[in-house]
Amino acid sequence: MTATNANSGIEILLVEDSEDDIELTTEALAVSKMQVSLQVVKDGLEAVRYLRREGAYRDTRRPDLILLDLNLPRMDGREVLTEIKQDPDLRTSPVVVLTTSHDEADIHRAYSSHANCYVTKPVNFDQFTKIVRSIEDFWFTVVRLPKEE
User: Fold this and answer.
1) Does the pTM of the predicted model rise above 0.70?
2) Could you tell me the domains of the chain?
3) pLDDT, tens digit, for every residue of 61-72?
4) What is the Cα–Cα distance from 115 to 36, expressed in whole angstroms?
5) 46 Cβ contact list (under 8 Å, min separation 6)
6) How far is CA 83 from CA 16, 24, 27, 93, 125, in A?
7) What is the mean pLDDT of the chain?
8) CA 90 to CA 105: how far, in whole Å?
9) How many angstroms separate the CA atoms of 44 and 13, rounded?
10) CB 97 within 8 A of CB 115
11) Alpha carbons 82 and 114: distance in angstroms, whole number
12) What's the CA gap between 90 and 1, in Å, rounded?
């Protein structure tokens, strides 16, 4: 886990296949008071490769926070979450499930798989922006994260 510092800013990995939701998240973070670098991967398999720094992602920085959709191509978010939390090098990475699913089974499975929180995406732009900013504020001004070893 990378601790946030003034020189490098905040690194967020968004795992999302919806272009609209990518755009909304990008816009919500663009007005941040903090220096945020948003990286995007559009399927679960790429997310795992990114986090494990494989192939083209060899030189990437470990994200300070992962925003994970559940419904993804190639490997769904439920499987990605399980991969993250079972990997000793990744398990301390905070994962916010950010999804449209209201399904109680998805909520229960996410927490059973050690998601740090589960947030249902609002459909309204202003509410979506408020949620993303709240997530950012909580994880980077309230919470203390471990440094990468």
Assistant:
1) yes
2) 10-142 (3.40.50.2300)
3) 999 999 999 999
4) 22
5) 74
6) 17, 27, 29, 12, 31
7) 90
8) 24
9) 12
10) yes
11) 8
12) 7
